[in-house]
Amino acid sequence: MPQAKLAQLSQALEQRAAQQLLRSPVTLERYDGRVLVVAGKSYLNFSGNDYLGLATAPQVLQAFADGAAQFGAGSSGSPLVTGQHAVHQQLSDNLADWLGVERVLLFSSGFTANQAMLLTLSSKSDTLLLDKLSHASLIDAALHSEAGFKRFAHNDLSALQQLLAQQPQPMVVTEGVFSMDGDSPDLAAMLALCHSYGAPLLLDDAHGLGVQGPEGKGTAAAQGIAQSELFCTMANFGKALGLGGAFVGGSKTVIDYIEQFGRHYVYSTALPPPLCAAVLTSIELCRADNWRRDKLQSNIALFRRLGADLPLLNSQSPIQGLVLGSSERALAVSQQLKQQGIWLSAIRPPTVPQGSARLRITLSAAHTTEDITLLTQQLRQVR
Ligand SMILES: Cc1ncc(COP(=O)(O)O)c(C=O)c1O
User: Fold this and answer.
1) Is 5 part of a structural domain of the chain?
2) Atom of ligand 1 lying closest to residue 112 CA
């Protein structure tokens, strides 16, 4: 056995445990969007990303089962070999039509899609400019890219402008709704800035798709911006659409390029066809069921009204952050809430910056007024 290597790994694990930063997966015995069951006990769920309650919508479950019967369980290959079935094409066309982009490519996850988007589209002569609070999948892609890499202060357009002015070939990357703070950039102003420096703007709208804008078209649409003004957009199916997988959408040239040169696309098994069938149904419900978005918005407004005295971050999205500071404190509060039947995971560094461990409260259309009232009462007691 390579003892030295094992000793190095054990030491890193012990160090993480000593810092109260060890994470372990929780196994759900049951899940219905609003409630989850862990070790035989039911909890109100305020930690998921199933914002519209679509993960357990009966029509979506039926589409999954029908899709398996019709197309088989797996795709059997890379999309460029034998992995692309009719349902993949249908999903790609449907997404392009919904969002108003020329083409989209499907990926097995948002993490992979972000890797493909940044690694494929950037080259040595470019510099990637990322918001400081960008998701790990974007940061890792930028770190692995041949391009230069710089970060600007969160949502700070003057910081971005300074970097734009210094770089000969900048490419700007931001998120529609930031995954830990729940806030959004001023995309119109950012786009204008990017245009004035000839810089492409790439958007990760994982938390905006389905939730923001008319028919849930996402953050750009919510801010009155046509998707075609962005260089490209990544969003995933694992949040508001309740499933899994992701896509990158944009102009024909951009997507044709990723199709040819994107190693994460070319050398990876295509999504399972029944998943695509289920995503198609989920999109249909998402577009048509405005009541889901209306209910979500009224839940957000209710939470912010009832929690007005709590130290909440400034967010109008379903992601509401309550910063507690140390990891120990965040863990202790999360534990206390669990005892009261509320599932609210503590989010600690390195997911969030040092000293800003927090509760990341996520709201859903599935929550009731009573759920949100109980949550705010309990938060007031334990914080
Ligand atoms: C902003 C953002 N981008 C990308 C991802 C990755 O997506 P996926 O979970 O589909 O890999 C996530 C999800 O964790 C996210 O929050």
Assistant:
1) no
2) 11
